[in-house]
Automatic annotation (TrEMBL):
Record organism: Thermoleophilum album
Function of the molecule: Participates actively in the response to hyperosmotic and heat shock by preventing the aggregation of stress-denatured proteins, in association with DnaK and GrpE. It is the nucleotide exchange factor for DnaK and may function as a thermosensor. Unfolded proteins bind initially to DnaJ; upon interaction with the DnaJ-bound protein, DnaK hydrolyzes its bound ATP, resulting in the formation of a stable complex. GrpE releases ADP from DnaK; ATP binding to DnaK triggers the release of the substrate protein, thus completing the reaction cycle.
Assembly notes: Homodimer.
Compositional bias (Low complexity): 17-42
Keyword Cytoplasm recorded: yes
Protein name, per record: Protein GrpE
Length: 208
């Protein structure tokens, strides 16, 4: 064998020895690192196992918070609905009271005019048929009644009706042949009403 071949053989053996040493070192390092790697894996697995119950508990807490928020929302909605209903009731009540106040004011004014109408009717009843002033009084009387009618006021004469204390004011009673007791037999002053409101009851005489 030549010197060149001898040197080449020595180099190959040296390279094989180096490769074997490197492999053995890597295996040793891997073996040395294995316990640490296994420890880290065990820690991660333990953390994952611990995070399961904690996550479930957090989910339950969030669900409870959400339910509390829903209850609070429902309470506010219920309060808002009740306040709105109260306002609507107040608005309707104020509307009714305003309308009733207007009717009362109108009734008070008409009530003050009724004695003047009564005087005109008495004058007409006492006037002679050929009295030249009677026609003028009659025209004034008709004008008053027309004005009252425009405002929804109408007179009522309950002669022949059964006495009703809500509509009639009994001034006296008298026996009336052929008439059962409790019937209006005469009207001293007519009654007046505004819709369902009695401005003045009719003043009547009732059969005994």
């Amino acid at each position: 064998m030549s010197a060149r071949e001898t040197n080449r053989s020595a180099e190959l053996k040296s390279e094989e020895a180096a490769a074997t040493a490197a492999r053995d070192g890597g295996d040793a390092a891997s073996s040395a690192a294995s316990p640490e790697a296994q420890g880290q894996s065990a820690t991660v697995a333990s953390d994952d196992h611990a995070s399961g119950p904690q996550a479930e508990e957090r989910v339950r807490e969030l669900e409870q918070e959400l339910e509390a928020m829903r209850r609070e929302r429902d309470e506010y909605l219920d309060l808002a609905r009740r306040k709105q209903a109260e306002f609507e009731n107040f608005r309707r009540r104020m509307g009714r009271e305003k309308a009733e106040a207007g009717v009362r004011a109108k009734a008070d004014l008409i009530r003050d005019l009724l004695p003047q109408i009564d005087n005109l009717e008495r004058a007409l009843a006492a006037a002679a048929p050929d009295d030249p002033l009677a026609e003028g009084v009659r025209m004034i009387h008709r004008g008053f009644l027309a004005a009252l009618e425009q405002h929804g006021v109408e007179p009522f004469d309950p002669r022949g009706e059964r006495f009703d204390p809500t509509l009639h004011d009994a001034l006296s009673t008298r026996a009336e042949e052929g008439t059962e007791p409790g019937v209006v037999v005469d009207v001293v002053e007519k009654g007046y009403r505004l819709g369902e409101l009695v401005i003045r009851p009719a003043r009547v005489i009732v059969s005994a």
